[in-house]
Amino acid sequence: MTSQIIPVEAFDYVVFGGTGDLAERKLIPALFRRYADGQILAQSRIIGAARGEMDHEEYRSFARNALKTHIKEAELDADKINAFMEMLFYCSIDAKSDKGWPELKSILGDEDRVRAYYLAVGPAIFGDIADRLHSNGLIRERSRLVIEKPIGKDLASAHALNEVVGKHFREDQIFRIDHYLGKETVQNLMALRFANTLFQPVWNASYIDHVQITVAEDLGVEGRGNYYDTSGAIRDMVQNHLLQLLCLVAMEPPASTDANAVRDEKLKVLRSLKPIDAESVDAKTVRGQYKAGAAKGNPVPAYLDEVDDKQSDTETFVAIKAEIETWRWAGVPFYLRTGKRLSSRVSEIIVQFKPVPHNIFGDDAKSIKANRLIIRLQPDEGVKQGITIKDPGPGGMRLREVDLDMSFAENFDVHAPDAYERLLLDVIRGNQTLFMRRDEVEAAWKWIDPLIAGWADTNQKTAKYTAGTWGPTSSIALIERDGRTWHDGEA
Ligand code: NAP
Predict the structure, then answer these.
(1) pTM above 0.90?
(2) Which of 62, 180, 278, 316 allows an S-S link to 340, with CB 3.0 to 4.6 Å?
């Protein structure tokens, strides 16, 4: 199955932090892939910008290495790489001084094309860059700004950061990336919900028992321990990725896929989340931190061995029972769970339907399993709907659960593009549907802040869990108290 590739108009992408980890691992490979597929015109330019001194050729070598390291060999076509390199430039620039800004201005020139400024740098210098782009006359009608998490560490700092970038860029020029939203399966969730009549009538508290959202990593903090230590799982994962996924599951049908129509609906969900504060934090959340254990059969160190602060109580795991106070979702818990050094790397959404109201099969069907929809983001992106059928052959009315399985890798002859591939070009297209609006980010913090304050007020400490397991036993109790169990990627 092939789809027609329509190239986006020629653009200039300026990647501040163009020599950093994000640029190397994600941005350069994603742009190359889109170029190789014919979606980027050769007149486009990608300009790496950072303080380090290098010329265009040295930057091209850096980019070649990035492609070699992060793209499968089969995809590395030498002619395409050479042609892609022609589109790359470098500008040595300092966000915090005037160094390099006239050079950037001269590279960009006067042509009226879409200019995207990607801030692949720490948020502390977002304001410096926005100010200097402005004072050097580099922001025009068709200029766009792309920023990434972390967007603040609480509501006040997120608000301040939004003010800083909003001083020079209009909201419709600002693209806040949450790369989870660029994943194929996440977009498929929209298709599933709103392009099929099947689900909409049952997508509510009358038919859905609960929802689970798990984003589990098997890796630890690796070399990023000291950075991670200032953030923790709730800020690093829940405030953005997990809440965004929750919104897509829970939102009302938007009137169209127009960016604001979709984001208005997500915002309503965030604003309907039942507050969790000092009174309820103990019953509704679990914080954990991994201790030494094993991953893939090898011993791995404890979190505290990977950070400088040996007394740190930063959580590397969090589980939350969230509730949405609307007619649609009254009484339907959304169990959220994320952590590092868990048993396996899996991100999935489980929509657990209620059991049939009356069993007509009697003893023959001791275990009619309630229907379950599994939306798997990684690995093996795909969607599975568990349904109950009669076991074929004689022997009475024996029932069993089978999966209607839509595994993308098996069913479509295309590689699922990395989320960044889609998102980077959506910036050029000016399509903000898969990006977070300012009010969404702030509404998410508004829910997270009292929860974190609740932990502090009640002195809730992290429960230690062995690396390579599914987290603290108290997180299992959190859901089992309600007569439910976590779906641990078993099916
Ligand atoms: P990194 O590897 O430390 O790279 C930082 C980049 O910024 C380097 O190119 C650095 O080059 C440049 N830089 C630093 N100070 C500068 C200044 N004053 N003026 C101009 N350039 C400057 O960081 P990273 O991991 O790529 O992350 C960048 C941002 O993206 C962070 O906010 C991070 O939280 C976010 N993020 C990263 C990832 C990821 O996978 N890495 C994922 C999501 C979000 P020079 O030192 O030569 O200036």
Answers:
(1) yes
(2) 316
